[in-house]
Design a protein that fits this description.
The structure holds two protein chains of two kinds. Chain A has one domain: ABC transporter involved in vitamin B12 uptake, BtuC. By secondary structure, chain A is mostly helical. Chain B is an alpha/beta fold. Chain B has 15 helices and 22 strands. A six-stranded mixed beta sheet of chain B has the order 6-7-8-3-9-10, sandwiched between helices. Chain B has a six-stranded mixed beta sheet with strand order 16-19-20-13-21-22, sandwiched between helices. In chain B, α12 runs parallel beside α13. Chain B is globular, with a radius of gyration of 25 Å. The model of chain B has no long low-confidence stretch (mean pLDDT 88). The chains are: A mainly alpha, B alpha/beta. Chains A and B meet through α8 and α9 of A and β18 of B.
């Protein structure tokens, strides 16, 4: 019961504070929230956009949630997402694979690159106990600037009028879309992965080890569970999903590689995972909440000229309230 | 003798738990009054109320004939009550002088009147027979010396009543004797002492009267000269528990564990175990006596595979396991000293904690067989009578005794060849102590080799076939139980060199 109180209270408190902020700039918060709600839920296009935004958030939420279960903070989902997107783009643009092999190959290389990017902080943590918060965070910038360099330089397209884009992917390298909207196959991939992870963390011996390491690392040592292995594996899994999120974004939505492929999905994965307290099924729900904020936020921007930044304000508030709630609970 | 302190009808509740249930407690001037009870009986709560740390929900306190109410320890101290806690409250980097005057206004405040303090400490030392080196840094003192500083610090504040919370828990037998001597001389000079303990022998030895608490209620107050161990036990636990268990004789089998010239470092990189050698056979219990912090933890962790061995060898059933991981030491059961920090994942369920070491054996295909795990866990809970609301209850919410039963259930059910039991009964109540000791004897009788590491000499003498004493990382003599006595072991524990008998 108490597990539910903290997230629900955090959401409510964040809504309240954002409402006050909106009121302060002369916008009726009830109206604004109503507009956000109707725009996301009352039309086919609204619902499709909701799913489009939710898809990468499920994956980056998992990318944070799995290491979190072992007590590790993966702040690097953003960078892992960029590396996944980069890898998928290279395959899409330069591989000339036949159509049946194209998407699977993009999927695999994106997963591998995301994993590789997460492997660096994972190994540093396991071998030298280097703080993973710092190393994952800093590697984000390396990945983002790497992609920027590629699209300004070697990978810049021939038909892009000097914009920092690659060319559009060939059709065989794009994810199928449905209902005449941007709703695409990636949504189902994300749901399937979340379900699979649910079984892995709750039903397998790896999931058990993960839980023990997260609950008490010294008890894990005592029980003969290899902490190093659990650290590396959980980070690799996390990096893999963030990498897949990158592939899904470029081949489902952007259809090319460009500098700002992610509007902070990797960072949003942190509140998504926290709100779900690391539970993969709840990650889907909290990803949907944040997806709603993204969609509603852009509607606020067009209707009231409120900067999209309000979404990030909301995200940060939720993190703050959850952390505050947890420390309050620890005290009694 | 006149009454110095009266606590009437004291009630203290923590949520649903009634820690003190209408307790009347009366102390006379100049006596040593023992406050006896199992862990969780409410002794410390009652004294924390007296000392102003807690406020009572009901009841009143009369001190020196006046009704008083202490809102904080400061009030209690200025009324003349001092308390020495189980865990000392000294600043390790400061010297004795600084610790004594800390928070005290000497004449000429804010300047510290050094001469005045020195004279006063000297007078107190002489009066009560407690010696301290005034300018020694606390870090360099032994535990016994630290305790003397704590007592002196209280006396320095002109107290009339001194509360000692489990003062002997960390002392060697010799230090206990000298503490008792000092306490007697303090009462001769008019001081009154409340002595909190759960050790019967000590209560009988040093007190004038004893009040027994059980589950938050007062059972009664008796004159020490008119009672005995059996009566006190009955008062404490509500039934007779035969505490004089001992291990029956048994033929010893093959050698199970051999440790050869073992050197192990502590966290700071200093050698904590210095060239230790011993062996244990099937059916044998080797007791390692010694005050905590003399390398016992490093020794047990090295044998359990949790700590790197710098030099020497560990041989288990003829195989060299010196550098093997925990998984390759499956036949070792380990009941660690720090049960909650090492032996348990307190935030996980009872089921998960029971399966902490064996969950991989329940793999069926890709998934774990949770039904099978629950079945096994249910059996274990039954067999070791772990009291828990359910298998899915959070392990950290169990009582200390049930946590230890849970750990025993997990460790002993794996048919170990070697059992390392470190301070296995510390902090448990009498029933729990009895249970754990019987289980260990039972395991040894069935053929396991047991390494018992304990500060509790009674325990070592009850269980061990051979007794070794550990002091500053070395084993000071290994002797047969028959050839050992408390004086000899105590002498070695305090750093004495082996006496050739």
């Amino acid at each position: 019961m108490r597990d539910i109180i903290t997230p629900v209270a955090s959401i409510a408190a964040s809504l309240l504070v954002v409402g006050i902020l909106l009121a302060a700039i002369g916008i009726n918060p009830f109206e604004a929230y109503a507009v956000m709600f109707t725009s996301s839920f009352t039309s086919k296009f609204g619902l499709a956009e909701l799913c489009v935004k939710t898809t990468p958030l499920i994956l980056t939420g998992l990318a944070v949630a799995i290491p979190l279960r072992a007590g590790l903070w993966n702040i690097g989902a953003e960078g892992q997402l960029y590396m996944g997107a980069f890898a998928a783009s290279v395959v899409a643009l330069y591989s000339n694979l036949p159509s049946y092999a194209m998407l699977p190959a993009m999927f695999l290389t994106a997963a591998i690159f995301g994993m590789a990017w997460a492997a660096i902080p994972a190994v540093l943590k396991a071998k030298f106990d280097l703080n993973e918060i710092l190393s994952t965070l800093l590697l984000n910038y390396v990945a983002i600037y790497w992609v920027e360099y590629m699209v300004y330089g070697p990978m810049r397209g021939k038909e892009v009028y000097n914009f920092p884009y690659t060319d559009l992917f060939p059709d065989i390298a794009t994810l199928p879309r449905f209902f005449g909207t941007r709703f695409h196959l990636g949504f189902f991939i994300a749901i399937l992965i979340a379900l699979a992870i649910h079984y892995i963390v709750n039903k397998t011996d790896f999931g058990f080890s993960l839980k023990v390491v997260g609950a008490n690392p010294r008890a894990a040592d005592y029980a003969g569970i290899s902490r190093q292995k659990v650290i590396v594996y959980s980070m690799l899994l996390g990096g893999m999903f963030a990498g897949i999120a990158g592939m899904i974004e470029v081949s489902g939505i952007q259809l090319r590689l460009r500098p700002s492929i992610s509007t902070g999905y990797g960072y949003a994965g942190i509140p998504v995972a926290l709100l779900a307290s690391g539970n993969p099924l709840l990650v889907m729900a909290s990803a949907a909440l944040f997806g709603f904020l993204y969609v509603g936020g852009s509607v606020l921007q067009t209707t009231y000229s409120v900067p999209i930044g309000i979404v990030y304000v909301f995200q940060s508030l939720i993190v703050l309230f959850i952390i505050a709630g947890q420390s309050l609970r620890r005290r009694d | 003798m006149e009454t110095l302190l009266e606590m009437r009808n004291i009630v203290k509740r923590f949520g649903n738990l009634v820690a003190n249930d209408h307790i009347d407690f009366e102390v006379r001037r100049g006596e040593i009054h023992g406050l006896l009870g199992e862990n969780g009986a409410g002794k410390t709560t009652l004294m924390n109320i007296l000392y102003g740390i807690y406020q009572p929900d009901e009841g009143e306190i009369i001190f020196e004939g006046k009704k008083v109410r202490f809102r904080s320890p400061k009030d209690a101290i200025s009324a003349g009550i001092g308390m020495v806690h189980q865990h000392f409250m000294l600043v390790p980097r400061m010297n004795v002088f600084q610790n004594i005057v800390l928070g005290y206004r000497t004449p000429h405040d804010p300047l510290i009147n050094q001469k005045w303090v020195e004279e006063r400490v000297e007078a107190l030392s002489e009066k009560y027979g407690i010696d301290v080196a005034l300018y020694e840094v606390i870090m360099n003192l032994s535990v016994g010396e630290e305790q003397r500083v704590e007592i002196l610090k209280a006396l320095f504040r002109d107290i009339k009543l001194l509360i000692l919370d489990e003062p002997t828990a960390v002392l060697t037998p010799q230090e206990v004797d000298s503490l008792f001597y000092a306490l007697k001389s303090m009462t001769k000079s008019g001081l009154t002492i409340i002595f909190i303990t759960h050790k019967l022998k000590e209560a009988l030895k040093v007190t004038d009267r004893i009040t027994v608490l059980r589950r938050g209620k007062k059972v009664g107050t008796v004159k020490t000269s008119e009672t005995n161990e059996r009566e006190l036990t009955r008062m404490m636990v509500g039934r007779d528990i035969v505490l004089d268990i001992s291990k029956p004789p048994r033929e010893f089998g093959k050698e199970v564990l051999r440790v050869e010239d073992l050197w192990v470092k502590d966290e700071r990189g200093n050698y904590a175990v210095k060239g230790v050698s011993f062996s244990i056979r099937e059916g044998e219990i080797l007791g390692i006596a010694g005050v905590s912090g003399n390398g016992q933890r490093e020794l047990e962790e090295a044998i359990a595979g949790l700590r790197k061995v710098e030099k020497g060898r560990i041989i288990l059933d003829g195989q060299d396991i010196t550098n093997k991981g925990v998984m390759e030491r499956e036949s070792i059961a380990y009941i660690p000293e720090d049960r909650i920090g090492v032996g348990l994942a307190p935030s996980l369920s009872v089921l998960e904690n029971l399966m902490l070491k064996d969950f991989k054996k329940y793999r069926k295909g890709f998934f774990l067989d949770f039904d099978e795990m629950e079945k096994k866990a249910r059996e274990l809970i039954e067999e070791f009578s772990v009291k828990t609301p359910s298998l899915h209850a959070t392990a950290g919410t169990l009582s200390g005794g049930n946590i230890q039963r849970l750990i025993l259930a997990r460790e002993l059910s794996r048919n170990p060849r070697l059992i390392i039991a470190s301070q296995p009964t510390r902090g448990l109540d009498v029933a729990g102590i009895d249970y754990v000791r019987r289980r260990l004897i039972d395991a040894a009788m069935k053929g396991a080799a047991v390494l018992l590491i304990s500060e509790d000499l009674d325990e070592v003498f009850q269980l061990a076939d051979r007794i070794a004493v550990m002091y500053e990382g070395e084993i000071r003599g290994i002797m047969d139980r028959k050839g050992a006595n408390y004086e000899k072991v105590g002498y070695l524990m305090a750093g004495g060199l082996e006496v050739t008998a």
